[in-house]
Amino acid sequence: MVNDKMGASELPLAGIITESGNSEHFDTGEWRNKKPVHDIEKCKHCMMCILPCPDNATCHKDGKMTGIDYSKCKGCGICAEVCPFKAIHMVDEGGN
To answer: pLDDT (tens digit, 0 to 9) for every residue of the chain, 96 residues total?
Structure first.
């Protein structure tokens, strides 16, 4: 039990990530305001968008970017920022 009389050394540890890569087990896209749109015509499949995605929402198969899993995507826009070919752009949720 945590209370306001506890010193810092008595507080339980919090925010510890005990394992990596568990975001794909959760659907987190329901509260998104903006969404990324993948333009397959501009995409060079460089895969720069995959590693920085915090929710593992960028889809790929056989070394090619295939789209975005909107059930996982929170709309942070990192994928659009890192894409050197501007093949991903952000739109308002519900827009094209």
So the answer is: 667 787 777 766 666 655 655 666 777 777 789 999 999 999 999 999 988 998 889 999 998 999 999 998 999 999 999 999 999 999 998 755
CATH code of the domain covering residue 28: 3.30.70.20
Nearest to 86 by CA among 75, 95, 76, 77: 77
Q: Specify the number of domains making up the chain.
A: 1
**H/E element, 36:** strand 34-38
